[in-house]
Amino acid sequence: MTRSTPTPSAVVPAEQQEREAAVTRQVLDSFANCPDPRLQHVLQSLVQHLHAFVREVRLTEDEWTKGIEFLTRTGHITDERRQEFILLSDVLGVSMQTVAVNNEASGDATEATVFGPFFVENSPRIEHGGDISFGAAGEPCWVEGTVTDTAGKPVPEARIEVWEADEDGFYDTQYGDDRMAARAHVFTDSEGRYSFWGLTPTPYPIPHDGPVGGLLAAAGRSPMRASHLHFMVSAPELRTLVTHIFVRGDEFLDKDSVFGVKESLVKDFQVQRADAPAPDGRELSDRTWRRVRFDIVLAPDAS
Ligand code: BEZ
Ligand code: FE
Fold first, then answer.
1. What residues does ligand 1 touch, defined as CB less than 6 Å away?
2. Looking at the structure, do residues 156 and 258 belong to the same domain, yes or no?
3. Whose CA is nearest to atom 7 of ligand 1?
């Protein structure tokens, strides 16, 4: 790991350090009468860390202005279709850290990962073995598995939402028309099983034509996400799981731009010959296809 060297506090004279600490104390004290204890805790901690940051990096006034201008551009490009602040949180790993804090390990429950901006309510329902592509282009991929609780008991009627980009790396919502494709929901059967036809995921960049893209470029970082298929799985009395599965061997697994990859979520998407019999008898004689297994374990709902 490479990390820039902080300015040693030894180079800041003690009297100056005390002046700076006094500013922090004054701001912390301003929240002393906050009626909501949680809000007070969050705000005081935020101030503590922000002030420590300003002091550690010896933030110049010019850098402060650039930071404000960056946040202003981030706000201006944000609307109901594009959320640049979430993207900023994603590339700074704040989204994944929040996922980690809120999804404590519970037995062998499946790990969660970042939600991303491309989920859409009211996806079409498909039956077992149905096809989520609805015309989206890509290599067909048979996805199957089970949903169980941490005691290994099958979960019937779990709702599984799935969504993904097409082979060109675009979600349906990015085409700017009304299409709904490469997304659907399916329910597990009485033994907790599910299956569907999806598309073999391919890598794609997060939206990088705005301020967050500029930040990545300035930092020499790639906007690419490792190839993945999104899942959101919910069932009564169990913790809703938001996750993806990733393709073993993908070139971006160790440099996903939003830090979403967990080893336990990397799966074998096995290549099948064009003439290999499909699990549901579907005719795929003109192209290769893949199959992947994803057994999902839901944690108990702690709330
Ligand atoms: C995605 O999974 O599609 C995504 C996640 C975070 C930021 C941008 C895109
Ligand atoms: Fe995605």
1. 87, 90, 114, 116-118, 206, 225, 258
2. yes
3. 116
Clarify whether residues 148 and 198 are in a common domain.
yes
Structural domain boundaries enclosing 53: 9-59
Q: Are strands 228-234 and 241-247 parallel, antiparallel or unpaired?
A: antiparallel
Which residue minimizes the CA distance to atom 8 of ligand 1? 206
Residue 98 in any domain: the answer is yes
Distance 287 CA to ligand 2 centre (A): 25
For helices 94-102 and 84-91, the axis angle rounded to 10 degrees is 80
* DSSP at 255: G
pLDDT 10s digits, 42-67? 999 999 999 999 999 999 999 999 99
Q: 185 and 273 in one domain?
A: yes
CB atoms within 10 A of CB 144: 16
For residue 104, pLDDT beyond 90: no
Going from the Cα of 102 to the center of ligand 2, the distance in angstroms, rounded, reads 20
What CATH number has the domain bearing residue 145? Answer: 2.60.130.10
Is a pLDDT exceeding 60 seen at residue 140?
A: yes
Which among 114, 174, 212 is the best mutation to test ligand 1's pocket, defined by most ligand atoms within 8 Å of the CB? 114
Q: Are residues 138 and 262 in the same domain?
A: yes
Structural domains counted in the chain: 2
Alpha carbon distances (Å) from 168 to 171, 202, 229, 249, 253 = 9, 8, 14, 19, 19
Measured in angstroms, how far is the CA atom of residue 49 from the centroid of ligand 2?
A: 31
